[in-house]
């Protein structure tokens, strides 16, 4: 017969032990976070991810949370909760895209400030990563909210940024219909993200190229390609991001292929096309009423956007 044995249980003792362990755990997390932060300063992006996963056996997400706690941006009690990294503004960990479809879910607040036509800063990050070296000079002549500037800072590149409507101190005034400033001569890369014709013209100032008529816009792109060829150094890179266009809302029978037209303009200027990357728009660019209207009209909403890479 099995004899039942009563074991005296001291709840208070267990409570105090757990609290002590919890305190030591918190101190360890903070110390680990500080060490991770220091290591990150000395490793390049690809090296950091590999080191974290192979040597420390952490995911990048866990490492970021430890670092956020050490810096005071995340509370210990949120460590294992559902609080998102974006909620605490921790350091963004860049992972280069391996495939030639770059799909990003909207604007990353680490790159640029809100501005009509904002693009995900990761587009500029990947361009800079693949086509430049540390210390290279990147020019963005239609800088908008400055995502290219912040991407250059992140990857240790120099940047000259211009716009006709300057909303940051590090963006200088220049009207691209008149060409590039002299100090951009012989730069390493030009990043082009012009307005996609008149898609957002009501959000831009009247002097924007988004106010041009269709033929004028095409002439602008032709001149832009020629000006890029005069400005970029030999073997330099020019990237051109553009979206195709339905002439009428959700039309299925009137379509302008700005992507192909851009390729022809830059080839005519003397460039060779070295890559073409699909950077589709997110469906969030459309309002619910746009979707409903398209459904009612049996039309399609356009998300096609490509990034062309040209070399001189």
Please tell me about this protein's structure:
This protein has 9 helices and 9 strands. It is an alpha/beta fold and 312 residues long. It has 2 domains: 15-88, no CATH class; 121-311, Vaccinia Virus protein VP39 (Rossmann fold, 3-Layer(aba) Sandwich). Helix 7 (214-231) links the parallel strand 4 and strand 5.
How would you briefly describe this protein structure?
With 312 residues, this protein is α/β, with parallel strands linked by helices. The chain contains 9 helices and 9 strands. The strands form 2 sheets. A 7-stranded mixed sheet has the order 3-2-1-4-5-9-8, sandwiched between helices. A two-stranded antiparallel sheet has the order 6-7.
- Full CATH superfamily name of the largest domain: Vaccinia Virus protein VP39
| Poorly predicted runs | 1-7, 80-91
Overall structural class, as computed from helix and strand content, comes to alpha/beta
Radius of gyration: 25 Å
Q: What are the defining features of this structure?
A:
alpha/beta; disordered N terminus; 312 residues; 2 domains; single chain; two-stranded antiparallel sheet; globular; seven-stranded mixed β-sheet; Rossmann fold
Give the topology, please.
Blueprint: H1 11-42, H2 45-56, H3 60-70, H4 85-88, H5 121-131, E1 137-140, H6 147-154, E2 158-163, E3 171-173, E4 187-192, H7 214-231, E5 232-243, E6 245-246, E7 255-256, H8 258-269, E8 272-278, H9 288-296, E9 305-311
Parallel strand pairs: 1-2, 1-4, 2-3, 4-5
Antiparallel strand pairs: 5-9, 6-7, 8-9
